[in-house]
Amino acid sequence: MAAPRRKPAASADAQEMAGRQREISISEFFTKNRHLLGFDSPARALLTAIKEAVDNSLDACEEGGFAPVLYVEIRPDRPVNLGLELASLDESAKPGKNDPASGNGTSRDERYRIIVEDNGPGIVRAQIPRIFGKLLYGSKFHSLKQSRGQQGIGISAAGMYGQLTTGEPVTIYSCTGKGAPAHRIKLQMDMKKNEPRILTDEETIWEKDHGTRIEIMLTGSYKRGQHSVDNYLEQTAIANPHLHLTYKDPRGEIVVYPNATKDLPPAAIEIKPHPYGVELGILGRMLQDTKAHSLTEFLKDEFCRVGPKTAEQILETAGLPDRKNPSKMQMEDIQKLIDAIATTKIASPPTDCLSPIGEDLVMAGLKSGVTADFYTSVTRPASVYRGNPFQIEVGLAYGGQLPGDELAKVLRFANRVPLLYQASACAVHKAVLTSNWRGYGMQQSKGALPTGPLVILVHMASVWVPFTSESKEAVAHYPEIIKEIRLALQEAGRQLGSHIRRRAREKDALKKQSYIQKYIPHIGDALQSILAISDVERAEVVATLTDTLERSRKL
What we know:
Blueprint: H1 14-19, H2 26-32, H3 42-64, E1 69-76, E2 111-118, H4 128-133, H5 154-166, E3 170-175, E4 182-190, E5 195-204, E6 211-219, H6 229-239, E7 244-248, E8 254-257, H7 280-289, H8 295-302, H9 308-318, H10 331-343, H11 359-369, E9 374-379, E10 383-385, E11 388-398, E12 409-414, E13 417-419, H12 427-433, E14 443-444, E15 450-451, E16 454-462, H13 479-531, H14 535-554
Parallel strand pairs: 1-7, 12-16
Antiparallel strand pairs: 1-2, 2-6, 3-4, 3-6, 4-5, 7-8, 9-11, 10-11, 11-16, 12-13, 14-15
């Protein structure tokens, strides 16, 4: 039977259509598109929320000059069946209308309270609501220096997700110093206005002299494996050897990752934009906002690596007067300035805005997390993409207890943060995949990772990591970045190849020695039988043959 035809929708005039238009707040947008932020599944949501809180804590500790000591806990809302056989189940825990497997809602068995506590400088009371209850609010977006956070979205988005899935507020504890009052604030986010709504605000007693603690109740799924919270924290400890981390999982098991060093990484110093990275619209806005009264002053004050001579050369090429008021520049003048910058040789930006892990600490991190018999690391000189400085570091661990019949394991990091998802979309994965590992003694099928007992660590440090999405899980395929990763892999690969060839020679020598030890006695017995010589003479013949074979082996 044919389905009944729908009646055509009533047409609307322009006035009625205009009446439907309304502004969308950023929090409303991400409420409907939370997958863009990494909250697209319960398992990934749990990981993303912890990742954002840990990143913020590490940044705060380092900026405040404190060696980070973090406590992370995933606390079930009530006892959870994590794959364990329970003797009995009450009716509320059996599959039914509230079981996610039935498709009729979310079970309370998947509600977790995540807790992340640090020993950082704390947060000033007035800033707490906006940091945790307002999207796109932070101090790092306009700052050109290496940091884990960039957009001012992460931790507030985690609180928003918790509010959406459980209705529970975010709880924040903060103390800014010994003798200062500790504050406990509970807040929610007003989705329509993208503003925090404070539920309780009180002073409390807290045993810490300084630091921050955040608690978020959310719906999630705890799993072990490659994309788990456990793996993320383990890799975080590898890339941050100065971190002391205590982790309590939902089963109540506690894992401690001690710090491999007490020294903080070198502090990254903020720099000004480099002229090569500026685009037409950005340059136009900078010209309008500057306090400089001349183009020469503007170029020197607003950009790095531009001195009086470079500024003079740029303006001469552009055919613009040096005393022209920046705010009166027309679009055609701005285009001339952009073209002149592109043709002027300008020194690369300074690299003190970066804080790489360093070759020694990359190896120390690998040794603390990977059991192998060979380690090597390489830190490349700083390079530039779109005017943004960056550095690539590579570490390799080979042999030992690593599986020899599986594909190599690739650990991807950006500004010391592990990247666990979207590997195939990442520049790091592409660079590893397209490197010739057979040249270093590894097995490799076409279009695949090398096979063997190998762990590959790749870290990108940059003032602005070009992630492919707001979830910050994959680095974009900039040719400059892929080239630097390949060069670092080649340098480390040559050291790996030397090790593999040396081990092969040693193995071959041991094999020959075993042959000598196995067959020389039999040769001696045969000679004794044939020549009927004495035991003493036999021993001398065996010694002579052994010496002769040993010298032949060395030659």
